[in-house]
Design a protein that fits this description.
The protein has one domain: Rossmann fold. With 198 residues, it is of the alpha/beta class.
Length: 198
């Protein structure tokens, strides 16, 4: 069976997890949420991709903040996560990955790569509303996490996640788009890329 992968990356609060779920349903793909697998690695549980749910609010939680601190001292979690994601890609034929690094790490040509973004203020407002937190508090935590992630990925893979969009086939800025708009843009591009008829 021919492989069909969609690799979604982007910033927290941009709408990437929602897009992942909708595209998975539309194209009948297995959902792979990196944040869910990271939590299982942290808990030293057996990896079960069916139970690795999206990380809505996880990284802003106390457990998520603690894990961010641990990741700065010990790259084991990131290296192990990426190794397992690539292993899943070897076994699966049709999947969608919500992962910060897969667009850079997966070398196959059978993947469509999407970066989803929004301005920091818009993202902070969305997360604050979802998690019922203060916007200023969320904005500060978001900026700190992005800088931490950027340092980790630069050191591990020499990748600049802040400004490098070269691996991506499609970049969507969602400030003025709703979930339906984002889905339609992405789905149209995916159908063209994989030559999928409606």
């Amino acid at each position: 069976m021919k492989k069909l992968f969609i690799l979604i990356s982007g910033t927290p609060g941009s709408g990437k997890s929602t897009l992942t779920e909708r595209l998975a349903e539309e194209f009948k793909l297995k959902r792979i949420f990196a944040s869910g697998i990271m939590k299982q690695i942290k808990e030293e549980a057996n990896i079960d991709i069916e139970k690795a749910s999206k990380g809505t609010g996880f990284w802003e939680s106390d457990a998520g903040k603690k894990l961010v601190k641990e990741r700065q001292k010990n790259f084991y979690y990131d290296i192990e996560l990426d190794k397992r994601l690539l292993s899943i890609a070897e076994k699966e034929n049709r999947a969608i990955f919500d992962s910060r690094m897969m667009a850079w790490l997966y070398k196959g040509k059978d993947a469509f790569r999407i970066w989803v973004d929004a301005s920091p203020n818009v993202r902070a407002k969305r997360i604050a509303k979802r998690d019922r937190k203060k916007i200023c508090e969320v904005a500060k935590a978001m900026e700190k996490r992005l800088k931490t992630d950027a340092k980790i990925y630069k050191k591990l893979y020499n990748v600049d996640i802040i400004s490098d969009r070269s691996p991506f086939d499609l970049v969507i800025k969602t400030d003025n788009l709703d979930a339906d708009d984002v889905f339609e843009i992405a789905a149209t591009a995916i159908r063209r890329f994989f030559k999928i008829s409606n």
